[in-house]
Amino acid sequence: MKDLLHPISLVVATLGFLCLLRDVPTRRRDPASTALAAVFLLSGLSFLFSITPIWNHLDRVLGTVNLSVPLAQGCVVALLACQQVVLTYWGSPPEVARRRSRRWLGAGFAVIAGLLVLFALLTPSAPHPIDFTLYYAHDDWYAAYLTLYVTAYTIGELFLARACWLLARRSTRGSVRYGLRIVALGATVTLGYSAVRIGNVIAGVFDTSLAQWEGFAWTCGDAGAMLTLIGWLVPTISDLAQSLKHRIKQYRSYYGLRPLWLTFYSEAPEIELSIGRVDPAQRRRFRRISIRLYRRVVEIRDGRFVIRQYLDAAVRETSETHHQARGLHGQELSAAVTADQILAGIAARAEGAHPAPDQLTDFADSARQTSGPTDDLNALLDVARHLPRQPARAPHLERVSA
Predict the structure, then answer these.
(1) pLDDT per residue over 176-214, tens digit each?
(2) How buried is residue 164: exposed, middle or buried, by Cβ count under 10 Å (0-12/13-18/19+)?
(3) What angle do CA 226, 229, 233 make, to 5 degrees?
């Protein structure tokens, strides 16, 4: 059972660690993020050390039989402490969180030291990657070892379940609430593993065995651990999904503005912002979609400024009458009229035909209320959608890479 469930749990832990590792460099001053990444790393190592082929390989390489036991269980104790660090920083002021975190980490290291000392007092004669607990159930030193580990494990999981449930009630983010409740559920499920291991200690006293409960113990341990890891990942997955959604929207906006940008560029190629003088070390930053989209918006605004002096009031009135007859109104009407003004203004600039001063007007969408960059971008996209399907060709297509 162990060798069936542990690889699955190892995959979940590895994927979670890789997801979190991406943000660790940008959150170096966030102890909670670092501790959460450590949780996934330590969880993965605990599963890895317990898989039979890895167990046997470590025995041969390190020359100590069954050393995977304290290695794996030491990782479990450490990750329990790290989980408390995450919750402490999420739910307490930084000063309080630092003090409590040191206590949790100190307690974890003390338990790990105790486990190593008790393990050194055992007399392992042969590798037992499958039935290690059953084999040593009647050894007094192992009874002490298992009692220390199970006590720390059970206390850690109980504190984890309680803290997650309380913090979930206080959180204002839906993904954090759901994630913490899943963690609390996982911690509760792992208590089945604790119960069997406590039973192993008691059974050793009465010279009996709980061999038939080993499958249940590993199922509870692995299922609970997977639920816990998934719960910790829910906020991260939610953030990644939001980031991906935002990135897709940026790409769609970037290419949605292309017809409008080409329309201006065909008449005024000078609007293109040159990055030839940008430091090569910073050039990669300018290839990001966020910077490219910002450049495109700025260049379109420059294009509007260039042809603003060629906007004829007669063109605007004719366009408004035409689109009103088509049933357009409000922002859609102003966007359609602005598109017509742009095309007419570009044609007038090409011919050098300035309107009379008393006929000069502004863009129809100039009165549109925009409270932020998003509203401004949406206003430009509305205009772009009303341009003809075949936009004006750029005079220097090899330069059209913005």
Answers:
(1) 999 999 999 999 999 998 888 888 778 766 667 667 777
(2) buried
(3) 135
